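Supplementary Methods, section 5.1.

A reviewer requested that the exact input to the structure prediction be made available. We therefore reproduce it here, unchanged from the version used in the analyses.
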Amino acid sequence: MSEIVVALRDVWKYYTIESRPVAVLRGVSATIKRGEIVGIHGPSGAGKTTLLKIMAGLEKPDRGEVVVDGYLLTALDDKALATLRNTVIGFVPQDAGLIEELTVFENIELPLLIAGVDKEERRKRVEELIEYIGLRGREKALPKYLSGGERQRVAIARALANTPSVILADEPTANLDWANAKRVLQLFDRIRRDFGTTIVIVTHDPRVLEFTDRKFLLEDGLLREIPGL
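The structure derived from this sequence is encoded token-by-token as follows.
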């Protein structure tokens, strides 16, 4: 089992703005180890979400390679990438991304359904996860009845459902007060310790970096590690 879970090798990404190509990511390279919590900090518009989506296989780089747990994402087709996102990679979007028509139980169960896990195993796994995130008794609640912090914990449980190697979180505390933000960050730390999961957090809030093992700054399309921040 490799110690390196995520490897970015000379990753470039361009967007067309006013008919001109603009480099959002410029030669980004980094390695992230198993069980690390890594923070990627930077101003709005710096390309943090783009980088996270490339790591999740939701977008493809224009140049460079992305390897996640031994899989070269840039060599996979859409079907293989979708399978990888349901098993190896967990993704937590900024708005939690819950399906409003589904209950807490059903939202967490969805990745297990897609993976073909049998009904009894799904029930057991979802109940364990609901207990793990501290929402026992809210199984039948719809997302609209949850607080912002509760929604984010459900999104994290859903990302954790198939025990991925890495969880990628896009501004997971942006819409929370600091008390609830700390609860989410403490949950990430607990997941890392209990499951050995690698966690990458994109954030514009420097306070979040206090909860990470390593810190990177993404600015002007360039990524650099900030030791001792």
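The first helix runs from residue 48 to 55. These observations are discussed further in the main text.
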